[in-house]
Design a protein that fits this description.
Layout: H1 8-25, H2 51-73, H3 75-98, E1 102-105, E2 108-111, H4 129-146, H5 149-170, H6 183-190, H7 212-232, H8 245-271, H9 283-306, H10 312-322, H11 324-339, E3 343-347, E4 353-356, H12 358-367, H13 374-398
Antiparallel strand pairs: 1-2, 3-4
Length: 405
Amino acid sequence: MTMQPRYYSLDIFRGATVALMILVNNPGSWSHMFAPLKHAPWHGCTPTDLVFPFFLFAVGNAMAFVMPRLQEAGAATFWKKVLKRAVLIFLIGLGLNWFPFVAWSGDGLVFKEWVSSTNADQGIRLLGVLQRIAIAYLGASILAYYLKPKALLYTAIALLFGYWALCAILGSGDPYSLAGWFGTEVDILLLGVPHMYKGEGVPFDPEGIASTLPAVVQVIFGYLTGAFVRKRGEVSWIWKKVPNSSETHFKLISGLMVTGFIVLVLGWVWSLGFPINKKIWTSSYVFYTTGLAILTLGTVIWYTDLLGVRNALTRFFDVFGKNPLFIFVLSGMLPRISGLMRIQQGVDENGLAIYTTPLGWFYDIICASLPGPPEVGSFFYSLCFLIVMWLICAILDRNKIYIKV
């Protein structure tokens, strides 16, 4: 059987995205974080706000190498594989939201109810990061399977303009504000308040139903970029000399860089009327982050696939890129498991025991005691957590264990 060429750069790009996702999702303290590791309060874009769209872009990249085989296999095979994968990812995300299914209440563990029996507004969140990945992957796969690249591009742009129109027409007051955005009403109607995220102090889901529409386009843009790389690039992780390779490589890299710059500028221009905003996933945000993703991917391809660089940094990200879904889920499970293990840490003024968790103990005793501002200790905890995740990935990679759905 002929081995499919593997782009080392795509593993690096995907692995770096997963690594950053783990890093920003696991601070020692949410109250003490360096500014670049925080999401923008509302409008705007920090480095942290690039992580999720970059991952969706990487999902699209991977699709470009799988879709030709699915199209050759026929519609039945396509629907079976894509639906199965989307459903599994969605259910894993839902299970992660619910995990570990019990929580401390007083001195005992109680079952986490689908809807709380004591507070009708509280329950298990239905959507989330993995659920958005599942839905966006499914939507983009269907469109990519049935449409030619040019029609797919036009459809993607039409979806972004359509989303802009929905926000402007259906919104109230400032249609791009937390209070005025139309998508919250859609989520309340279809999901219900108990199953929505409430991190903004009110029911509002940053991975809600309406804002998933432009996220589908993010995957489509990743797919189109991956298709361009697959057709133009004659390189793989095993270096090969090919006829006219210099011209081929120049067209590949220059095409990515020019396209990325143009899309980035278009995103900035669009933001003058439709602000860049991750939480409602605006169309300008899709363009802006896609432009940056294309530029980043072009740089990584030039560095790793064309120059053939292999060093400690590329190795670090490579192992993350080979087990991205597994390690992301594990990074979400470990803090929840730690939360079930209580370590007494003195008593309060009423004589009641104060508890911490193993991870909380590590932060309080070791990380928080580091010299400097508290952000240093919080970041050090994040790095330690990331290194543990890397060690697990490295062991899996050494044993050629790759967990996929």
